[in-house]
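Note on ligand handling. Small-molecule inputs were canonicalized before submission; formal charges were left as drawn, and no protonation-state enumeration was performed. Where a ligand contained multiple stereocentres, the stereochemistry in the source SMILES was retained. For magnesium ion, this procedure yielded the string shown in the input block below.
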Amino acid sequence: MKNIVLIGMPACGKSVTGVVLAKSLKMNFLDTDLLIQEEAGKGLQDIINNDGIEVFKKLEEQVISSVTVQNTVIATGGSAVYYDSAMKHLKENGIVVYIEASLSVIKKRLKNIKTRGVAMEKGQTISSLYEMRVPLYEKYADCKVVSDKYHSENTVAAIIDAVKNYR
Ligand SMILES: Nc1ncnc2c1ncn2[C@@H]1O[C@H](COP(=O)(O)OP(=O)(O)O)[C@@H](O)[C@H]1O
Ligand SMILES: O=C(O)C1=C[C@@H](OP(=O)(O)O)[C@@H](O)[C@H](O)C1
Ligand SMILES: [Mg+2]
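Structure output:
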């Protein structure tokens, strides 16, 4: 069974939705953020604060490129789409689903932006990050679902429906 790879802005719901989706489809679940934490032996924000964004990105790229699971829902980090070869690697054995949420929804949900470990350059805002990232999410997506007006259970149902044609 192909993996289901969730991409999208931080706080669009990849992790929360992913674990419920995996249970519904009797698949396994993997959150690449947890692999990064394990590899680094510290939290995402600690890596970004202490080692810098470039080190974080290298580590994330390496971790995602090393994923070899099957029959698994994979919640990526919002920055996964920066790494072309890692995304191609995930796409080889996975259906890539973009969980789309509007800028205003993301802004509301990202109250803890300073601590949740978003890979933002100095001077970057949520709006500029959104503008830069959306074309990348669109580029790698096989299909997309909108999470804005739904509860997460409905987002799960929308993903199940969206991936039907690809499995
Ligand atoms: N329709 C929805 N789908 C997914 N998450 C939602 C939805 N509505 C509200 N949320 C909330 O948005 C947040 C998403 O966080 P998370 O799953 O960690 O996002 P990501 O992994 O994409 O960064 C959670 O606090 C979740 O409860
Ligand atoms: O969008 C980002 O730059 C990031 C999002 C985080 O994951 P979530 O998308 O699960 O919040 C995490 O991977 C990392 O700290 C960077
Ligand atoms: Mg997440």
